[in-house]
Design a protein that fits this description.
Layout lengths: L1 H4 L5 E3 L2 E3 L3 H5 L1 H14 L1 H13 L27 H22 L4 H19 L2 H25 L4 H5 L7 H16 L3 H7 L7 H4 L6 H15 L22 H10 L4 H25 L4 H18 L5 H26 L14 H10 L4 H14 L29 E2 L1 E4 L2 E8 L13 E4 L7 H4 L4 E4 L7 H9 L3 E3 L4 H4 L5 E5 L4 E4 L2
Helix pairs in contact: 3-4, 5-16, 6-16, 6-17, 7-15, 9-12, 9-13, 9-14, 14-15
């Protein structure tokens, strides 16, 4: 499904998808841009690619396809700093999903799969819409401008981190705060809290109305699921169970919020972040005005601050909309799978997870399936789970590791990429499975990687450390918006940091210290 959706060819190895960047590295014009973008996002990938290039004998240098012309794809058209642009993109996307939900209901059999293939083309047009891309790039470029210029003018590192707290239209950070509101509904009802502590069955929402306050609790959880229930861990994989399909996944997080927060915490947190961003803006502009040519510098900075606050929240929306569309596809495909099970074509509905889209199309058309192929795919899937994919892999099969190449760190420090400014000390909680997360306020989350599904945990933590990530990955974006010091790309962090150790996270300078 992702290969059908992606904007460029994706190849498969060991059950993972990868992009072949050989041609991008081979021409001088595209090489510089590729290294710049990948190096900003993940310095270890950038350094590994540079290591290969420095050998001089692996990547051939080809002539530029268009000497003197713009890089492939060109720059997005200039875009005005206008909140209505973001609101319009979101409204258009939501209308498109509503139309999909309406139109897909009448489709079944081979026609359903043809319908989905056609709709994926619509999804790609939305995902790669030039205006949408322009909004995302405008927010990123404004953040880069602020970081570079305010460090040069004022010595202020990563200034954009504080300035992007509580920006509007960030659907992922809103999701975490909205779950605090759900906890507010549940907290006054002890019978509901006691019931949720022992929930195991996915049908628990239907049982809630039997309890005092249970109807309100059920309605609050369902309203949250109606908006965010298409999400889950690893959500790009359409086969992963969604929160709507397994709402028990959310129960420990809700109970943690009931225990750890006071009523109204969601709204207060958002407002606190907004006020801190405004205070930081006023402080920076005042310092700029005191400089030579200060009025001009302050005016330019103000324009970029407005731009980053207008556009940076939208960064999270396209994936949210894509996952919403995927869930509509999945629900329709699972109904088709149920029909195939009733017709004794498939042994179980989940067997379709081990077929490509084209293979499923053939099964639906012929009412016949190769059981041996499905068994082989299941065995391969289990074996692939033991593999850890490298950041960079050559066609010779060599995994090339990058390095940060920094000498400005305390002895024993764990180096990474600074993605959200500030320093925090606290207890490390090393968590690999979100369902097993037991966090207390102020804990520092240490994990392999985060995606939007981890965001509800962010409201409780004091800081974040991950093994994989970049400046614009979801965990980094949400950490900045919540004001959490964060360092990502810390190799083997979940093995080098023990659960329960006290650590200090230097989110401004990009390293972690393990404290005695």
């Amino acid at each position: 499904m992702w290969q059908l959706t992606a904007g460029r060819p994706m190849y498969e190895a060991g059950g993972r998808l990868f992009v072949d960047v050989t041609r991008g590295l081979a021409t001088p014009a595209s090489r510089a841009g590729l290294l710049e973008v990948l190096g900003r996002g993940d310095p270890l990938i950038g350094d590994a690619l540079q290591t290969i290039l420095d050998r001089g004998d692996f990547i051939p240098t080809l002539p530029d396809e268009d000497p003197g012309g713009a890089p492939a794809g060109g720059a997005p058209a200039p875009i005005e700093t206008d909140p209505a642009i973001v609101a319009g993109l979101i409204a258009s996307s939501e209308a498109s999903i509503a139309a999909l939900k309406r139109d897909i209901r009448t489709e079944s059999g081979p026609a359903l799969l043809d319908f989905i293939l056609t709709d994926i083309q619509k999804l790609k047009r939305i995902l790669f819409d030039p205006q949408s891309h322009g909004v995302i790039m405008a927010g990123m470029e404004a953040a880069w401008w602020l970081n570079e210029n305010l460090q040069a003018w004022l010595g202020e590192k990563n200034a954009a981190d504080a300035l992007t707290q509580s920006v509007p239209h960030n659907v992922t950070s809103e999701m975490g705060l909205a779950l605090l509101d759900v906890a507010d509904v549940i907290r006054p009802h002890p019978d509901v809290v006691a019931f949720l502590q022992h929930v195991e069955d996915e049908g628990f929402l239907d049982e809630l109305p039997k309890l005092a306050g249970g109807r309100e609790a059920r309605d609050a959880i369902r309203a949250w699921l109606d908006k965010y229930g298409m999400r889950c861990v690893g959500e790009i994989d359409i086969t992963r169970p969604r929160w709507s399909e397994r709402p028990t996944t959310l129960v420990p997080i809700i109970l943690g919020n009931v225990k750890s927060f006071e009523p109204g915490a969601g709204g207060r947190r958002f407002e606190r972040g907004r006020q801190e961003a405004r205070k930081k803006e006023e402080e920076l502009l005042e310092r700029l005005r005191a400089l030579p040519d200060g009025e001009r510098k302050a005016e330019e900075a103000k324009r970029m601050i407005d731009r980053v606050r207008t556009f940076s929240g939208y960064r999270e929306y396209p994936k949210y909309a894509m996952v919403g569309r995927y869930f509509v596809y999945k629900q329709a495909l699972m109904e088709e799978a149920q029909r195939l099970v009733r017709a004794h074509v498939l042994r179980e509905e989940e067997d379709i997870f081990y077929l490509t889209f084209q293979e499923l199309h053939d099964v639906v058309r012929t009412n016949g399936v190769d059981d041996g192929l499905i068994r082989e795919r299941k065995d391969a899937f289990r074996s692939y789970q033991a593999l850890t994919p490298p950041r960079v892999l050559t066609s010779d099969g060599e995994a090339v590791a990058g390095a940060y190449r920094r000498g400005d760190l305390p002895a024993g420090a764990l180096v990474g990429l600074p993605v959200s400014a500030g320093t925090i000390e606290g207890r490390a909680r090393v968590i690999l499975d979100m369902a097993q997360a037991e966090l207390e306020a102020g804990d520092i989350l240490v994990t392999a990687y985060t995606d939007p599904s981890w965001t509800p945990l962010f409201v409780a933590i004091g800081g974040l450390v991950t093994e994989v990530g970049g400046l614009m990955t979801h965990g980094a974006v949400i950490a900045r918006e919540y004001g959490l010091p964060a360092v990502v790309g810390v190799e083997h962090a979940t093995r080098r940091i023990r659960d329960g150790q006290r650590i200090r996270v230097h989110g401004t300078d990009g390293y972690v210290e393990i404290l005695p």
